[in-house]
Design the sequence.
C-alpha cells in the first residue's frame, strides 16, 4: 500500500480539539492520519479512530519516533507505547522525526526500525527532516527502496528544489508538511488570483500544487468546513501557467527550524 496523497495532520492539536478534528476528517472521507510521539495526542487520535467505526484496514496511520527514543533499546518500547495509545497492533508508517541530536548512529536506529517492521509493528518506515547528506547515509544503510518517505517542510515559499530533485532521482517519496505555510497562503495575492480563476480557495491551490508534483500532503484544521474544503484540492486541476506563477513565490522561507534539531539544510 503506497502512502495516500492526502491526509490529515495533527501537529499542535491537543485533547478534545484533536479528537474532534480526526473524527470530522474520518467522517468526511480522510483515510491517512499523521501523528507523532512528541505531539502528545496519540491517545486522542486513537480514541477518535476507535469511535469512528472506520475499519483499521481502510486507514493509513503514521507516527514518528521522538529523538530521545532513537536508540536500539528505546525505539521498540516507545513504539509499543504509541500503539497502546493508538489502540492498534501496528502503524502503517513509522518515521524518525528528526535526526538524532544525541549522536545515536543512524545504523542503530534503522536496525531497530527493521526489527519493528519484521515484528509487524509497522508496515513501513521512513524519515523526516533529513537533508541530502543524511538521505545518502540512509540509502547506503538500507537502500532507497526501504525508505518509504522523507517528510519535510515544503510550501510555495519554501519549495526545497534541491532536496526534492535529489529525492526524485533516488526514488524516495516526499511528504510535504506545513504546505499552507501556517495559513500564509490564504493572504497571498498570486494564490488568491489562481484560486479565483478556478473557483477554488488559496489553500486548495497550494495543496493541489504540491500533489501535482507527486508529494503527499497532510494539512490540519480544527474546523470541519475547512477540512471539507481542503479535500477539494484532490480534484483541482492547475494549468502550466498556474504552476509557473507558484514557482516564482519561492523565497526560502523556513518556518520549522529548531536550532537544537535541524540539520544543515540544502
Sequence:
Amino acid at each position: 500500500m503506497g502512502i495516500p496523497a492526502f491526509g490529515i495532520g495533527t501537529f499542535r492539536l491537543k485533547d478534545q480539539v484533536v479528537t474532534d478534528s480526526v473524527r470530522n476528517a474520518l467522517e468526511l472521507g480522510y483515510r491517512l492520519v499523521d501523528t507523532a510521539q512528541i505531539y502528545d495526542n496519540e491517545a486522542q487520535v486513537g480514541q477518535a479512530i476507535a469511535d469512528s467505526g472506520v475499519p483499521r484496514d481502510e486507514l493509513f496511520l503514521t507516527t514518528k519516533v521522538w529523538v530521545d527514543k532513537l536508540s536500539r533499546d528505546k525505539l521498540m518500547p516507545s513504539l509499543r507505547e504509541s500503539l497502546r495509545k493508538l489502540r492498534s497492533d501496528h502503524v502503517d508508517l513509522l518515521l524518525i522525526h528528526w535526526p538524532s541530536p544525541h549522536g545515536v548512529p543512524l545504523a542503530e536506529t534503522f536496525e531497530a526500525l527493521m526489527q519493528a517492521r519484521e515484528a509487524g509493528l509497522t508496515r513501513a518506515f521512513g524519515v523526516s527532516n533529513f537533508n541530502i547528506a543524511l538521505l545518502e547515509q540512509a540509502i547506503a544503510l538500507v537502500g532507497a527502496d526501504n525508505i518509504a518517505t522523507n517528510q519535510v517542510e515544503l510550501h510555495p515559499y519554501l519549495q526545497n528544489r534541491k532536496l526534492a530533485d535529489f529525492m526524485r532521482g533516488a526514488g524516495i517519496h516526499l511528504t510535504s508538511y506545513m504546505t499552507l505555510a501556517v495559513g500564509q497562503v490564504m493572504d497571498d495575492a498570486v494564490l488568491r488570483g489562481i484560486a479565483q480563476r478556478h473557483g477554488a480557495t488559496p489553500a486548495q491551490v497550494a495543496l493541489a500544487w504540491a500533489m501535482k508534483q507527486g508529494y503527499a500532503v497532510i494539512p490540519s484544521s480544527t474546523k470541519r468546513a475547512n477540512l471539507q474544503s481542503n479535500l477539494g484540492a484532490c480534484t483541482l486541476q492547475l494549468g502550466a501557467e498556474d504552476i509557473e506563477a507558484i514557482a516564482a513565490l519561492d523565497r526560502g522561507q523556513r518556518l520549522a527550524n529548531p536550532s537544537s534539531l535541524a540539520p544543515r539544510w540544502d
About this structure: The beta strands are 8-9, 32-34, 60-65, 91-96, 122-128, 150-153, 174-177, 216-217. The chain has a mean pLDDT of 97.
